[in-house]
Design brief:
With about 350 residues, this protein is of the alpha/beta class. It folds into 2 domains: about 180 residues, Rossmann fold (3-Layer(aba) Sandwich); about 150 residues, Rossmann fold (3-Layer(aba) Sandwich), CATH 3.40.50. It is built from 11 helices and 12 strands. Strand 3, helix 4 and strand 4 form a beta-alpha-beta unit. Helix 2 crosses helix 3, helix 3 packs parallel to helix 4 and helix 6 crosses helix 9. The chain is globular. The two termini are about 30 Å apart.
């Protein structure tokens, strides 16, 4: 099985990446024993452009992708956030390789109208669509021939390589990383949390807002390895099964993770493997309780890490994407297998 992953691999940043679910998925596909090649559209566009001005490299990137399809002859294209690649190029790839199957993977929120428009623009050019939101919002992407499915945020042991559940010494007791607008609900949530915890002895860092600069790359990795607990808070809550991909980075590294109860993720992550909060007051109370009971914190964090790595590994999610796209029987009982939609 030959897969060409078309995505933003961020090579042009030379190690200073934001987050890289694309890399985790590549690792997972390789672990699943698929023959995988990568085409990084934004990197190729910049490297092939005159004076390395990325917008001038769009045509070159599309030509290069078709060259790679001709050379590699994939059975499947897995297209991520590769906005530089046109639908016409995908159509031409099908001519080069008859029977080629094309999947789209999107990990951005559906409360972002611009992201919805991007998926809609692709829906007639691909065979399957995979999104990290589920339920009714996915119905809008169905047409007469495609399949639309939910996927969780993937973790990979080569990326999330720590285990905070084993540690007792930390630089930070609670970590939140995420930028956004002051109109986002999580902006006010994090502000309330700072006020509620200021005299509690909980060392809380909210990188990206409320006085803390955002962090990327190695600095972000080091923060994960020096924090006891993590907050998963989306710009807006209540979208079915949606969460930022930071949930995978925190749970995969063994941080006790606080998740909004509105997410519905209780059906996949049991309540003794994470801490589900309802509002700022409830969240602050739970943080203080776990902070003062480290044995309980370690037990829940350890169970969460084991559960997330077992069920939401990039290998399993990669296999699910391939098996759904190729119309194969599922090789395991995926927890989210009922979140696959057809007309």
């Amino acid at each position: 099985m030959r897969i060409l992953q078309v995505d933003n691999m961020q090579m042009r940043h030379f190690g200073r990446v934001r987050v890289s679910p694309e890399r985790s998925l590549f690792n997972g596909l390789v672990r699943a024993n698929y023959k995988v090649e990568v085409f990084s559209d934004r990197d190729v566009a910049q490297f092939d452009a005159p004076l390395r001005i990325k917008p001038l490299g769009r045509a070159a990137a599309n030509r290069r992708l078709l060259e790679m399809v001709e050379n590699f002859r994939p059975d499947m294209l897995l297209v991520g956030h590769a906005d530089i690649i046109s639908n016409d190029t995908l159509d031409r790839a099908r001519i080069i390789v008859p029977g080629l199957r094309i999947a789209l993977r999107n990990v951005d929120p559906l409360f972002d109208a611009g992201n919805v428009a991007k998926i809609e623009a692709r829906m007639d050019a691909v065979d399957t669509i995979f999104v990290t939101t589920s339920g009714e919002p996915l119905q809008q992407f169905l047409n007469h021939r495609n399949v639309v499915a939910f996927i969780p945020n993937a973790t990979d042991p080569a990326v999330e390589d720590g285990d905070q559940s084993l540690k007792t010494e930390f630089d930070w007791d609670l970590l939140f990383c995420g930028v956004g607008n002051v109109t986002d609900t999580r902006h006010s949530l994090v502000g309330k949390l700072h006020n509620a915890l200021k005299d509690s002895g909980v060392r809380f860092a909210s990188f990206g807002m409320h006085g803390f600069a955002p962090v990327w790359g190695r600095e972000y990795e080091d923060l994960l390895q020096s924090s006891k607990m993590g907050l998963s808070a989306n710009r807006y809550e209540g979208w079915p099964l949606y969460s930022s991909d930071r949930i995978a980075q925190m749970m995969g590294n063994g941080l006790l993770t606080f998740i909004s109860a509105e997410s519905g993720l209780q059906r996949f992550v049991p309540e003794d493997a994470a801490a589900y909060w309802t509002d700022a007051d409830d969240l602050a109370a739970q943080i203080r309780a776990f902070h003062s009971d480290d044995a309980r914190r370690r037990a829940v964090a350890a169970k969460g890490r084991a559960h997330y790595r077992d069920h939401f590994s990039a290998e399993h999610i990669g296999r699910f994407i391939v098996e759904t796209t190729m119309g194969e029987d599922y090789s395991r009982d995926y927890l989210w297998a009922d979140q696959v939609f057809r007309r």
